[in-house]
Amino acid sequence: VLNYASVHPPVHLLRYTVVQDISAVVRALEQGVKKADVDPAVKAVVICGTNGTFSAGADIRGFSSIQAGDRPSLASVIDLIERSEKPVVAAIEGMALGGALEVALGCHYRVAHAQAWVGLPEVTLGLLPGAGGTQRLPRLIGVPAALDLITTGKHVLAAEALKLGIIDEIMEENTIDAAIHLANKVSGQPLNSRRLSLKQVQSLPNMDAILSEALVKVKKQARGCLSPEMCVQAVKASVQLPFTEGIRKERELFNLLLSSGQAKALQYVFFAQRAAQKWTTSSGASWKTASAQPIRKVAVIGLGTMGRGIVTSLVKAKMSVVALEQDQKQLEVGARAVTSLLEREASKMPWIGQRPDACDPALLQFTLDFSVLQDADLVIEAVFEDMALKKEIFHKLSAICKPGSFLCTNTSALDIDEIASATSRPHQVIGTHFFSPAHVMKLVEIIHGRHTSPITIATAMGLAKTIGKIGVVVGNCFGFVGNRMMAPYAEQAVFLLEEGCKPKEVDQALEGFGFNLGPFRMLDLAGLDVGWRSRKGQGLTGPKLAPGTPARLRGRRRYSPLPDLLCENGRYGQKTGRGWYQYEKPGARIANPDPWLHNFLIRYRDAHHIKARFIDEEEILERCLYTLINEGFQILDDGIASDPEDIDVIYIYGYGWPKHRGGPMFYASTIGLPRILAKLQKYSEAHPDIPRMQPSAFLKKLVFLGNPPLKEWMSHAGHQSSKL
Ligand SMILES: CCCCCCCCCCCCC/C=C/C(=O)SCCNC(=O)CCNC(=O)[C@H](O)C(C)(C)COP(=O)(O)OP(=O)(O)OC[C@H]1O[C@@H](n2cnc3c(N)ncnc32)[C@H](O)[C@@H]1OP(=O)(O)O
């Protein structure tokens, strides 16, 4: 891990590589600094990394073994560095993240390569910079900038770090030589002014307001996630307390976070997101053997809400795009919408000024001419959810597109195999389920059909990565993973209304749990007509419904006609200004309880002889969340998702599941599968007409096997993951 290398005497170079064994690095760093301190031949020290990287910080896997008492050791080594009578210079190449930046902050000088970047990502892992970072950074760059970096975990490039004052010098090349040169130059000069622990935090007249506004902001954004709030508390301590007391406070807050459980969940998500990129299918295809084909030109069919967002994402990633509509008017409306989205995106990216080509309109062509699509490497069809229309388009694409083109359908539920059957190249057909708004949401479900080739999967995954999305490979079934699990959740929410809840009560319970939006606000945003169209297509309502079908039963299953009745009343959600809530005008966003709906529910319950009862938050949460989780177990058993991590990534990045709870399957593992099973059994006995409440056989099996850890679940699934 450590080389104590004499490079240009009298400067000594301490080199570090990957920080896997945290305590070994801390010990080695301590020994290196102590040795340099007592060696009379050494006049200065440079700390750098190897292979062009200072350090990405600690190995996250090592956090689980950190004991509360271990923590101060890096902090004390950083103190040792800072107290050294010989100047210590950090030479930052590549990146300095987390503990590594804290080490650099303990150095007296910091030199960085122009392409290097720095950051304190601890907050995203449920922690805070606990080796003095929350006390030194505000002393170096002031409270507002330090709060921004520490509470978001964002990375900044060397140029910005220089502007902020984190870095003293930037080099285009030979960063280590420059650091050695600087170390030689400052050798013998007084160091007190370079010791951040001795500096005062720059006082600001509105400091109290800055701190309290920061707290309000992070509380609002974090929805129950503790680490951003603790970060603000720690920075506040740097303002209000002397350095050593501030460090004590930082340690106390760090230990609290370390034992909170949220840190474990967030660290799980870090690895789950990366594991999802290593896709496999139940037939044995995998990322290891399939390579993505290069995609230069993409065509998008349909410029509705989804198509516009998809085009925007592609252009932002500098891909050449052809956007097709069926008539001139729709083409013009769509083109205007895309232009405005691109302008809005550009205004959010100030660095775009330095990269004038970032949203280059020359990359984008709007057309009505289907034949322009013939040389596209990949086509994404994004018309509305109508199987006949999609099949017609795929039939045409199959005839027009060059033989190597990949054909993707943006669908949230439809059968990929049926769509592929309209082509002569089903192996090149794949589902790419984007989430709305598609230029913002990170997730893309990549759905392989029976005939989809591994190269097609790899190419769709590659495209997702290129445009900054997180692709997750899933199997083909109605609703795939995300919407299939959403169905029992939304169904429970509506049953709860029938039984006595108000939409706001259900939403508040789930927003309190940490969702960005509760189910009714989410449905109003997505548009109630989407589900209505799908239910009509399935014959659950509308003209295809058999006459004489009881209002609240489909076969022997409980059914709620409430969402259909709302649509029949023209209440489609936000877009019509009325849905489960009322809005000031169509398109407005603030949801207000609607007395009309309240009276409607009373009349509905009377008509169906339902006696309203009080339903507490616990029941709301358990019925909505546990039925969703139950479907997740069924999906794993069916092989539609290859492991629980994939489901969790889908829920976090596509459905607003609170990240600090680690995704539904991780959450289930923290609650304990026996408890989930017992609750589902209780509710399904009370509601025998709701099949989705019947515990899945896989869940029962795992409980029978003694509630094994999440990592072992798939070795017991009916459909075993080929990742094993
Ligand atoms: C020279 C001075 C050295 C001083 C060193 C001091 C060290 C401190 C030791 C004491 C510790 C005290 C407390 C410290 C806390 C911290 O440091 S918290 C900060 C931890 N670091 C991070 O959060 C960085 C997380 N990683 C990333 O952001 C990115 O991975 C990356 C580094 C920017 C690289 O991105 P990219 O190129 O896109 O690759 P990825 O796909 O993301 O990752 C590649 C594989 O590497 C694995 N990985 C990455 N980071 C870590 C990590 N920190 N710990 C463990 N593993 C990591 C990642 O999982 C990928 O793995 P595979 O999927 O298996 O390939």
UniProtKB/TrEMBL annotation:
Pfam families: 3HCDH (PF00725), 3HCDH_N (PF02737), ECH_1 (PF00378)
One term of GO molecular function: delta(3)-delta(2)-enoyl-CoA isomerase activity
Chief place of localization: other
UniProt-listed Enzyme Commission number(s): 1.1.1.35, 4.2.1.17, 5.3.3.8
Metabolic or biological pathway, per its Swiss-Prot or TrEMBL entry: Lipid metabolism; fatty acid beta-oxidation
Gene Ontology BP, a term: fatty acid beta-oxidation using acyl-CoA oxidase
GO CC, any one term: peroxisomal matrix
Domain of life: Eukaryota
Reaction equation(s) it catalyzes: (3E)-decenoyl-CoA = (2E)-decenoyl-CoA; a (3E)-enoyl-CoA = a 4-saturated (2E)-enoyl-CoA; a (3S)-3-hydroxyacyl-CoA + NAD(+) = a 3-oxoacyl-CoA + NADH + H(+); (3S)-hydroxydecanoyl-CoA + NAD(+) = 3-oxodecanoyl-CoA + NADH + H(+)
Annotated localization: Peroxisome
Keywords for the protein's UniProt record, in alphabetical order: Acetylation, Fatty acid metabolism, Isomerase, Lipid metabolism, Lyase, Multifunctional enzyme, NAD, Oxidoreductase, Peroxisome
Ranges of residues in domain 3-hydroxyacyl-CoA dehydrogenase C-terminal: 479-583, 620-707
Residue ranges of domain 3-hydroxyacyl-CoA dehydrogenase NAD binding in the record: 297-476
Family label: In the C-terminal section; belongs to the 3-hydroxyacyl-CoA dehydrogenase family. In the N-terminal section; belongs to the enoyl-CoA hydratase/isomerase family.
Summary of subunit composition and partner proteins: Monomer.
Name of the protein: Peroxisomal bifunctional enzyme
Organism: Chelonoidis abingdonii
